[in-house]
# Entry
Amino acid sequence: MAKKFACRDIGMSCGFEAKAQDERQLLEKIAQHAKSAHNMGRIDSATMSKVKAAIKDA
# Structure
């Protein structure tokens, strides 16, 4: 089942939203966005936990 994520769902003041066929693909998109838009070279474990909890079925 497809998955979706929005930065605002983890409290970010950001309009980024993404959808993908599965969680792995979605996490890749999120990581690319985090690096380019939020200057996060790596997503720390606390933030990753928030991200995974905010992923929903599309």
Remarks:
- The chain is about 45% helix and 15% strand.
